[in-house]
Amino acid sequence: MSALPLIVKFESTHSHTYFSDNLLDLTEIYKPDVNICVVKRAVSDELETFVTHLLSEPRTVNAIENINVKAFNAQTLLPSRFHLVEGYAEFCADIVHLIDIFSHLFELENVGLRFGMLDKAMCPKFHVDHVPCRLVCTYGGIGTEFLQDAFVNRAKLGSGSGGLSDVVSGLIKGDMDAISIMPAYGIGLLKGSKWEGNEQNGAVHRSPKLSEKSPRRLLLTLDFA
Predict the structure, then answer these.
(1) Which of 116, 173, 186, 209 is 20 to 30 A removed from 50 (C-alpha atoms)?
(2) pTM for the full model?
(3) Do the domain assignments include residue 26?
């Protein structure tokens, strides 16, 4: 699929977000003035069927582990009761695909993996991750919310909010339309405060508020390990 990048540029004091539908454009995260890269992608019907099944499960599914990229076996990620469900093979292949992308992009032998079913906002307030860079992918449900730099008052992050919500603290410049949402199955790269030269410009993001229509979400995150 050809790239359709939509680059939103602001003043030189700001970083910006790079949008595309081409996986090759994930390398844009290396540019000093890019702190978020979002690549939209299409997935197979089989994978969507499996994700729908997972979201309907009465029991939650969670996995947190540091993995060796070469030795990782995706079939260990979920309990055996899922192994015969339609789309399971496609799910495993996609997890491996994202791990390969992340590890090759940053030349990593080991990766920190977190996969889980969430029924509430894990990080409900806008914040910056103290990591070099994190990959996020919402497999089902509402995607991660983020703010482009022109719409953030960084002085209101963390304790600067005075305990007030994001809506009233003054953190968001403009109205609620300033909040962007990553698409389901899209790959997001969030540059954190530990990326050299990006200490003051970490990507500002939060978990979405879930709804009656979408009461759960499946989230994969990958980190340096």
Answers:
(1) 209
(2) 0.89
(3) yes
